[in-house]
Amino acid sequence: MTNGYIALVLHAHLPYIRHPQEEFYLEERWLYEAITETYIPILQVLKGLHGDGIPCRLTMSLSPTLVTMLTDELLQRRYLRHLDMLLELGEGEIERTAAMPEFYDTAVAYARILHKVKAFYLGYDCNIVKAFRELQDDGVVHVITCAATHAFLPYVQTQGAWRAQIASAVTVHETHFGVRPQGIWLPECGFAPDVDQVLHEFGIDFFFTDTHAFQAAQPEPVFGTLSPILTPAGVAAFARDAGASRQVWSAEEGYPGDPDYREFYRDIGHDLDLETIRPYIHPSGIRVDTGFKYYRVTGAGADKAPYRFADARMKAAQHAKHFLDRCRIVIDEAAPHMGRRPVQVATFDAELFGHWWYEGPVWIDEFFRQLQFADGAVLPVTPPEYLSLYDDYQMCDLSFSSWGRGGYGEVWLQDDNDWIYPALHAAERLMAELADRHVEPEPLEERALRQAARELMLAQSSDFAFIMDAKTVVEYAVKRTQQHVNRFMRLHAMLTSEPIDESWLSAVEELDRIFPAVDYRLYQTKRRIVPWAAASTAPTRYRVMFLSWEFPPMTVGGLSRHVYDLSRFLSRADLEVHVLTPEVEGWPAYEVVEGVHVHRIPVTRPDGGEFVHWAFQMNLAMIDAGRKLFSEGLRIDLVHAHDWLVSYAACTLKNEFGIPLVATIHATEHGRNGGIFTDLQRYIHHLEWQLTYEANQVILCSTYMKREVEELFRLPPEKLHVIANGVDPELLRTQNARKAGDGESQTVLFVGRLVREKGVQTLIEAAPLIVAACPQAQIAILGKGPEMEGLKRQAAESGVAESVRFYGFVSDDDRNALLHQASAAVFPSLYEPFGIVALEAMAAGAPVVVSDVGGLADVVRHEETGLKMVPDDPHSLATQVIRLLQQPELGRAYAKSATAELVFYDWNRIARQTTEVYRIVVSEGVGQR
Amino acid sequence: MGWPEDPASGLNGTNARLGNTELDASLFDTSWRNRWQIDRLVVLVRDPVTIFIYWDVSDSRRKLICEHFQSSWASLPFELQVFDAPSLDANHDSAPVRRQTATPQQTRAYIHELAPGGTFIVDLTTKTIYGKPFTILRSEPVFTPPLPNPQCGAPRALFAKVGEQRDGLWVHGHRMTASVATPTVSREDPGTPYAEQFDGYTVRTAGGGAKA
Which residues contact residue A608 at a Cβ distance below 8 angstroms, ignoring those fewer than 6 apart? Predict the structure, then answer.
């Protein structure tokens, strides 16, 4: 009766090492040694087992780089040359040891083995991948894949790069094995959360982790490591059994250290005199392993006894039995508690078997033979076979783990190799940008794109970081990393800023001839998740990026309303407008508001704890957001910045991407303060200058502002455009309108921020005069601000507290209702670049009294469309207000005239004027880089 | 070895040939860039208690920062601050769980002895003249794996078929998925940042300046 299973898994991998530019490249010998000592011996064992009818259920991963090298004609020719050299050495060794009986038999055996290796190799036309496929098709071995270049996936940064690693691996596997791989060996068992999603995407059903990955899984796997679990992506994970692995790997307890086994470190390549061995080592004279080793481990000391094949083989059989007995104990103990049959997973590097542990292939042979002739309580199994046994498996989340030293990333991330990651990650990002940019490349471009993907993947090979950690052939690993990154960067330059050098491209294609079918599009970012993309395909006159520190619902002053109205009317005029503005809690990060794309951007905190630092932080966030949108494919014709608060972002985006810049200056620090007196004012003044200096064209809202800006910043007049602010009467309609004078009270209304510049204090100062003349008068103050408490005190001290009401923040609808019923709307500003609220009051039908300053002076014609007062003069204010209260027909006449003038402040007209400014900057021929 | 310097030329292999063709020396370029002009702070988890951080502040951002804080880069104070991401999510002003000074020239660091099974965000910060931190770069959140614990409490078991996907089984650490609210027309005052310092017209600060 079967109690459980054992899955033996070997991972075969070598980094891509192919140097056509040199005849004898030292590191290419790694492949030759592995073919001779590991791959062919294992294949011979498997064929022998199959020939003897022994059911062999070995799982073996063949990495795509290894498969590529094994099928490469250049390397096949070179391997044959290497093999012939070994055969010649073998004949020489028979002669040399003829008088050394303790070594002679071994020399003869080596020669015989090498002849068999060559016969096997030639029997498969020098392509042993065919042998693996044959054994796969015969059901002897279950072949799986590995990440394309054995990248350590936890340290690969982007989904696109993960996808390229997995998809390329699948393609190589399908090409050589005719089927999609069901499983994958994650390089170094390196798992990171969400890797499983990519595996699922490419049809991978299972992978392997180290033991502790299961011990940290959430929730805890109920069967420990004796059953696979499923990740949330539905991919099965098998954990390697720590005890089984230790039996083979451990330096103390492991089988390879047995005294009867062959001693790896005594090779004639190092032991014989240089003249004798010179023809068989590297032409430069560097000594290398030849595979001719005549001693056994013997013991810890330097004295070694001669190797005996028969003794070693017997010991391998004993160790196979020991291994199986141990597995049997574990399975017998666990099976009754599980309600299903346990599976033990023993995973090893394939190159351990034969190359490092010479008797390893014999151990494999014995392992399967003894299993066959045991009582059937434990059977060999492959992962797909085990997964087919049961309908369901426990689902768990796995966290980051590997089978490297320490169990995580220490091998691939320490002082000796951490320098590679900034470059690798930068290359990933650049590759994604290339892929996004080249949707339909020319043939030559496509070649360069494919090669760029190859170079990136080669640079990502975990082997190089591993070697830097192991400190073996560090110089080679460093050089390879540097060269692949630099080749990638050269290709990137050819695809972005230089012509493609075809002869250079051909040379690098020959040097790094891997993954012919690589699909560079795998690196594309998933555009479908970019919300603005679909809406952004319609034909448009211009694409504009607005930068504004406020946008509804965040409304501090008139800027928010201005940006809102201008953007939506531009949108109505077939311009595509993207507004970048700070995030507002509870509001979406992206939405389309009346055709306008609103991107609300989080502003990072800590932000320095002061508004100016926050504003700077907002600029950094806007720069990042702009870069991101551009990298996602957004193309714009110009940036339109509003006020100093976005100066840094506007100038940076202009200069970094070569985008024309239009700036609207709504007010100046100098004007607000009547001069520049403090460091802070100087700082803001500088930013205003910088913005107007960098801007290709500058828009001002009034002739007053034009004069001020021209004088303050010494700007050329041809760069300045006066475009008035606008008003949309639609937004001022209300359902609750009541005509002025309908009731008993008369409302004198102020709308605006309660700041000194707005002159509310003048209104309060005038209030006693107004109330004395018109006892029905009620003064309504809408808005909030830092002066509110002081204004309330002022009203109380003036004895008019009952006649003055502070409403604070009110909704648009309430404001509109109050405007409609106001007898007079008063705007007593001390400084007012434009005065949009006065215009809104006029649009709502309220008679207005305004200070004769700034833009207000342009908006109102005295005794035609309203009344003007002397700024900061309460008597003047009271006089004009009392006139309106006592002569309502006068107010109605002014309001009627004012309404007729609104055509000059129509947003459609303003949008046309603004578009004309855009036309000027775009026609200057500067375009987004 | 340490980080390779940016050599003036890393070309070698100038005599390499492919068949009869002499290969361009640039094919074997081994020069190396340590700065990429990308504004980024990247955190890699090395093990349950150790993270590796590298950062790159582009020349353009350095210039802005120097201009804003009116200081040379070499004179600015820098500090790495490690935040517990869930706390930071709940309270944007939450204190860092770790601080580590960085030099102006530094571009990488290891931070040890963090909590296993945590979710962390790392900032590269400088300070204002009043000692308030200002974030220059922020990382994506990273998750340190929990320590293996075969003795952990009662398991929760859920079974499914191969290939079956399920959401919401278990949240491995902290996810920073942006919540996109449905656009609505709010009539509430949403509030503004630093309203007591900036009224839409005039900036008022205790220090009266924008110096760091």
Answer: A614, A616, A617, B128, B132, B133, B134, B212
